[in-house]
Amino acid sequence: MRTYIFIRLLQTIPVLLGITFIAFILMYLSPGDPAEITLRAIMNTDKPPDEAVRELQAEMNLDKPWYIQYTSWLSRALSGDLGYSYQTRRSTVEEISRAFPVTFLLSTIAMAFSCLIAIPIGILAGIKQNGVIDHLSRGISILGLSIPDFFLGIIDILFFSIYLHILPVAGYKGPEYLIIPAFALSASLFAITLRLMRTSMAEVLEEEYIRTAVAKGLSKPVIIRRHVIKNAIIPVITYMGTQYGWLFGGAMIIESLFALPGLGRLFVDAASTRDIMVMQGCVLVFALIFVIINLCIDFSYYFLDPRVREDNAL
């Protein structure tokens, strides 16, 4: 187990370096001078003084070659220094620390909606194929995939906030402000999870070892609980784990729609003003989230799939 964990941790190092390098190159090649754009916003003018632009370029290391800029940022990031926002003059770590809890709660609530509803329905649909629940689940999944999350968010605002007056419209003053956004964000995830769980259950029920268990006289509830669900949920865990990471980045539109001060909105605001330190810090956090989630998925395989334990034992 220790060797398995150690190997997976080593594999994350080039992944993180690759993601940060690609993100840096894309920011470096994007049009517009970050120093000039920053001074335009600060001075409220279309043409800031050239001397001020050059001073800020030197402060932001923009007057140096790209590889020096990247290595300088990377060395500071390894020591926990992500720079500061040139718009707000606050530390990037402080900006991310204030925004991360909102996005974390939003993504977690959206994931909980999908897990608690889609998985049980998918299990029932897979067991009772071509039944009422199965047909109903197919219709729900198609509907969930067809409706964009921002459109569903607008519909939810009209229904729950304006007509029923039971949930707040926008902003963030507590967890209750995340219910509507999380529901809108979870629509496509719910639909695919439901369909995947149903398909995986149907495939596992056709396996030879399930027929062997039936021939041995095991009852259907025991077979489903001990053999079918445990094996059928592995691809679902893989998908949901990956999508949990995507929720953090994909929450940009929802956070902007509902005026939530999360990571997605922080990145969008930083991108609009070319606040490169904040942008790079957000990309690093998104990359870390993906890596940690993938590690958790790999570790879950070790306990759920005996073949993984056998391969590592060899």
Structural class: mainly alpha
Helix content: over 70%
- The radius of gyration is 24 Å
State the total count of DSSP E strands. Answer: 0
Count of helix runs: 15
- Mean of pLDDT: 82
Binned strand content: under 5%
Helix and strand sequence: HHHHHHHHHHHHHHH
- Based on Cα principal axes, name the global outline: flat
Uncertain runs are: none
The biggest beta sheet, please? none
CA-to-CA gap between the ends?
12 Å
Summarize the structure.
This protein is mainly α.
Word description of this protein:
Helix content is 78%, strand content 0%. The chain has 314 residues and is mostly helical. The protein is flat. The model has no long low-confidence stretch (mean pLDDT 82).
Describe how the helices and strands are arranged:
Elements: H1 2-29, H2 34-43, H3 50-59, H4 66-78, H5 92-127, H6 132-146, H7 149-163, H8 179-185, H9 187-205, H10 208-215, H11 220-250, H12 252-257, H13 263-272, H14 276-304, H15 306-313
Descriptive terms for the model:
314 residues, 78% helix, flat, mainly alpha, single chain, 0% strand
